[in-house]
Write a structure and sequence with these properties.
With about 80 residues, the chain is an all-alpha fold. It contains three helices and no strands. The chain has one domain: Non-ribosomal Peptide Synthetase Peptidyl Carrier Protein, Chain A (Orthogonal Bundle), CATH 1.10.1200. Helix content is about 45%, strand content about 0%. Helix 1 crosses helix 2 and helix 1 crosses helix 3.
């Protein structure tokens, strides 16, 4: 997966979830649940919509694997397989 995709995922995270959570220190493999990402259905939906807008892809929550919300790496890997 590309660093550009990781950077864009981090941009979405910083705008949605990590405004006050020490975002610059967030490593690509850091567990995002510690920051509240994907914790509830509302936050999952908001995040997926933001990713869809950023990457121009459709993300069906029913098709998202359980490990999707684990880290920047897991999200970026999933996105990279869907971006043309």
């Amino acid at each position: 997966m590309s660093d550009a995709i990781k950077s864009r995922v981090k941009k979405v995270l910083s705008g949605s979830f990590l405004k006050d959570a020490g975002f610059p220190e967030l490593g690509d493999g850091a567990p995002l649940i510690d920051y509240g990402v994907g914790v509830d259905s509302v936050s999952r939906l908001e995040f997926l919509v933001a990713l869809e807008e950023e990457f121009g892809v459709r993300l069906d929550e029913a098709e998202i694997p359980p490990d999707f919300f684990e880290s920047v790496d897991s999200i970026s890997g999933y996105i990279s397989r869907r971006v043309p």
